[in-house]
Amino acid sequence: MTTKLFGEPVRRREDARLITGRGRYLDDIGAGALAAAFVRSPHAHARIVDVDVDAALDVEGLVAIYTYEDLTGPLAEPLPVLIPHPQLTAPRTGYPLANGEVNHVGEPVVMVVATDRYVAEDAAERIAVTYEELPAVVGVDAAREARACVHEEIPDNVAARHHQETGDVEPALAASPHTLSFTQYVERSAGMPLEGKGVHARWDADDRSLRVHTSTQASTSVRAAIAAKLQLPLDQVEVVAPDVGGGFGVKIVHPWPEELLVPMAAIALGREVKWTEDRREHFVSSAHERQQRQEINVGFDDDGRITALDVHVWHDHGAYTPYGIIVPIITATQLVGPYVIPVYRVVVESVYTNTVIVTPYRGAGRPQGCFAMERTMDRIADVLGLDRAVVRERNLIQPSQFPYDHHLTFQDGRPVVYDSGDYPALLEKLKVLVGWDGIDALRDDAEARGRLLGVGMALYVEGTGPGPYEGGHVQVLGSGKVLVSTGLTTQGQGHETSFAQIVASELGVPIEDVEVTTGDTRRFPYAVGTFASRAAVMSGNAIALAARGVRDKALRIAADVLEADPGDLEIADGVVQVRGTPGASIPLRTVAVLSNPLRYAFDEAAKQATQFAVQASNDRPPVTPGDAPGLEHRDYYSPIRSTFASGAHAAVVEIDPATWEIDVVNYAVVHDCGNVVNPMIVEGQVLGGVAQGVGGALYERMAYDADGQLQNASFMDFLMPYASEVPDVVIDHQQTPSPLNPLGIKGAGEAGVIPGSAALASAIEDAVGRRITSMPISPTELYDLMRSETAERTAASGRRTGVGA
Amino acid sequence: MKPAPFRYADPRSVPEALEVLAAEEGAKVLAGGQSLLPLLSMRLAAPATLVDLNRVPGLDAVEVTADGVRVGALVRHAGLLAHDGAARVQPLLARATANVAHPAIRNRGTTVGSIAHADPSGEMTSVLALTGGSVSVAEPSGERAVGWQDLFVGPLETSLPSVAVVTSAYFPALPPRSGTAFAEVARRRGDYAVCGAGVVVTLDEDRRVAAVRASYVSVGLTPEVHDLTDAVAGAPVEKADWAAAGALARTLVDPDGDLHASADYRRLLVGVLTERTLIEAAAEAAGGFQ
Amino acid sequence: MTVSIDTERTVRLTVNGVPREATVPVRRLLSDALRHDLGLTGTHVGCEHGVCGACTVLVDGTPVRSCLVLAVQADGAEVTTVEGLARDGGRGGQVLHPVQEAFRECHALQCGFCTPGFLVTIAAGLEARDAAEEITEEEVDDLVGGNLCRCTGYANIKKAVRHAAAAMAVSAGTAAGPPAISAETAADGAVR
């Protein structure tokens, strides 16, 4: 009994190596490689006056030093703007090594290659770079005020003004019975995988081929970028993502300077070269996300139904725009969530600051959009004196309204049309799960213990599985082994297991026979990448289609051998047999052998397929026209548009009114990602996302000072939660299958993180009765808020205490 | 993040260690290394020579007498935490050590090393002060005791000369009719405290408050001991106004703000933690009468 | 002077029961020596300042951060890394440590990068306690509390600790069996 594994909590196949220390991460590769280290800018904004490497030259073990002057051809040009967009009117990217100017602390200026990393750092330390400091623009408000600019030619610091509207918002607001306007902020955090980035390159001078391992979420595109930038034919470049120690978005960006420079050095030196990013580098030279200023105007009626919504967001994208305006677009389009918004206008101004670049971090603009929408719901409820759940309920898109067209354009350039969902049911389940209607009793109980208790909720809809496409290849070997490959990469999501489940189910083979490879351009050269909760949707469906192709072919060949109609055959446990006729069967591995007509018998199995062993028809060639040798199939899945997952979170917090410490005592999640391949893995994704959501709401921030120095570039001061900071989470599920793809699945990777800040802000506000307008929030900030004379009191708190607001 | 080059010696005796320290300019003593090694890896410190005490025999003992506890230079936090005898004589030792980082750090880090590191956000500097302790310092001229008041000069700075090895720390026993408590507020469990408080309450023979002392973690540039007795002196232990003692404490401290807490917030916590720890310590002191 | 002051040393230590030797600069961190000089790449480096715990190994049976110990300091020590947790099961097979089994069973890892540090810390902690005593939530929190994981949200790691503790109680002959993880528990590739 093996084959119907789709939907089962199959234990992960990758774990066997990962729990015994046999994983192969980037730094585990290339034991004898030279090591690269970088001299990085200590200034947020400066002109480079001079680079003096003399003092480094006598460091024993130094092999090479590279500055911008050493870059040639396309490598000396700016890094690519990966996702151009007509509204991205002033894109800027850096150079692999700074060309005369640095725009954030951490920008690479000089690369040093030496016998090991210790020595490389010794040499880097001795290189003297002279800078002429320029005024630094730090934070979204400074960028907006534009008293100084990041790039001289862009005086207003605005790279893009992204604008979408679904109607005439101003008259709609004017006609609304009630309106509210307010401004709120979300701070920077970062994905912060436990493994930083890293690149290893090996150049084979004899056949002029380059093999690059990189800790990436997009190996095929890194390959194309390396080939283009180093002017190598594509077929001479292989890129492999080995085991990757977490990504969360930061590794979707490419080519990172190091992904070009390390191969460049490997070719120039004829030696293996490796760069393993250290934690400090990761803080100042990878990517962050999340800072936005949100100005919101909302109109609504007496029942709390939204009549118009006008949102103006200022989005800090850091020093450069390599990833275009994807995050702003996602905020703009996902903000509307599960709600009917009759008239909606959104403008996102994406602005430059002298800080680390901003590119997608798990959630990718959605947490901010959710924060905007859900806090708006809370405010409407507060003004009208309604239950926050009731206001949400009244605005929800109803199950009968699917497909629901928001008349917006998503990050994939396709319409935001929700494919399926049941939001009222989500909300109802959430209320039950968290005990929403019984919260006052909990509040009283907490009060008796001297604690302030509050509850908050947040709902979201997440566009997942955007195109353009992914592919899958499935091949049955004569041994019975089934090789599966797809081009996108894996960073811990368990693709080796879930994709194997799909193939085992589709093909009717034991999962033990299935071997999955991801992210290796030698195996599958066409792919887009792993981001936007798309791997299961995209590669899952592509692999399913490929497996179906193999199945069709296997049945065709087996039908010939068994002299049966293919429609009467089934495959189970790796054996093709005539349904209802025991004994009339042929193992799939034999079908695989027979699929490849042979002249030479290289082993026992192969004998069966050789020309004198096969009783072939003399009327047709050994390989049927239009067919191909081998039991394999390659297929692609390219969706018409994204599929939309949804969910609802609620948090209960208790606050110590003496120390203002915030304790999350209950965290409830209802989650809908359509059909589920492996519920254990999906639940794991949700739990991990929630931890990042809680971290982003209560602990993590990038603390830049006014000079653009990151004050907390270490795990000591950037407060990623330990187990002690993550609440217990209760999860309930709902499945509304996607009608858009063969497997009916929706993405699950990012969901858990999206509503964290919104739900927790709501809960804290509920507990303390003061308006929370900025997240994250720490005890010291909550203390400031509580003793501030200007902090707004919520109407709800006034009603509870009987004192007007 | 790799240490800059240095030279390394692992002497087998304190005199040998002193010999190396004297011979090598820019030499630094290494014990547990849990504070020093991150500084080395970040190249925020680059001593020319490390003198590793870990192979010096005899420095790993916890000696307990009725008068106090002497903790050798190589006693790990975990060892002190688990030492029942030490906890009996001076309960603050275990109570504070339990707040030092996480177990894997406590397994390697030494109590004396963290005192010699003189970090005002270290728990054990504060405990040394609160208990009126001292360290024993070996120098080429001989061994001498240095009281805590004379030891701490500034953040990460002691009065000790470069050719010196702290061989032990001495924590006097808890006085009779006394109770202690220790508490911290940290952003994450195991982090350096945003604010920590250790207190000692001593009663007179009539169960009235005779003395109240407190010392704080992450408050001020060096450890200080604050006498809070005035707020509650002479009050029967059950009726003492511990909130008043907390309020007094708030007026005595001079905290700084940083990324994780404003100065005002630290001051708030000083008051709250003082009151809460005093209630606990007073109950313990009172319990000693039964 | 009788004391040797060096820039390089030959370090002899026993790693996972095997005597090993490496000549290293004295500044080499134990984490780097294990990974790069001895080729034991199962121990991972996540922060190099002692906070994340990914590099945790056992030195003479005690969990320590290998990024906060110099290789020369481990001269003469017995070191256990994640590669040494499983026991030789004979005929080339390996018998996983109950903690390793539990991590797989409870989906306590995703990317796997932090996993070695958790495994050795928890294994040492569980072995040091009386297997007959039911593990408390406080003990679980202590065992997982000093390591960072960015993928799992820790819930399944805590579940794995309880599972392993129960399994160890069984092998100590003091309990009936590990708690059922879920009604539909399935092993790698096989639905039960």
UniProtKB/TrEMBL annotation, chain A:
Keywords: Molybdenum, Oxidoreductase
Segments forming domain Aldehyde oxidase/xanthine dehydrogenase a/b hammerhead: 20-135
GO MF annotation terms: iron ion binding; oxidoreductase activity
SUPFAM superfamilies from the UniProt entry: CO dehydrogenase molybdoprotein N-domain-like, Molybdenum cofactor-binding domain
Protein name, as recorded: Xanthine dehydrogenase, molybdenum binding subunit apoprotein
UniProtKB/TrEMBL annotation, chain B:
GO molecular function: FAD binding; oxidoreductase activity
Domain of life: Bacteria
FAD-binding PCMH-type domain sequence ranges: 1-176
Tagged with keyword rRNA processing: no
Assigned keywords, A-Z: FAD, Flavoprotein, Oxidoreductase
SMART domains to which the protein is assigned, alphabetical: CO_deh_flav_C
Keyword check for Zinc: no
The protein, known as: Carbon-monoxide dehydrogenase medium subunit
Organism of origin: Geodermatophilus siccatus
Lineage, opening ranks: Bacteria, Bacillati, Actinomycetota, Actinomycetes, Geodermatophilales
Automatic annotation (TrEMBL), chain C:
An example Gene Ontology molecular-function term: 2 iron, 2 sulfur cluster binding
Protein name from the UniProt record: Carbon-monoxide dehydrogenase small subunit
UniProt-listed PANTHER family: OXIDOREDUCTASE WITH IRON-SULFUR SUBUNIT
2Fe-2S ferredoxin-type domain residues: 9-85
Source organism superkingdom: Bacteria
Pathway where this protein functions: Alkaloid degradation; nicotine degradation
PROSITE patterns noted in UniProt: 2FE2S_FER_1, 2FE2S_FER_2
Keywords: 2Fe-2S, Iron, Iron-sulfur, Metal-binding, Oxidoreductase
Keyword tRNA processing among record annotations: no
Organism: Geodermatophilus siccatus
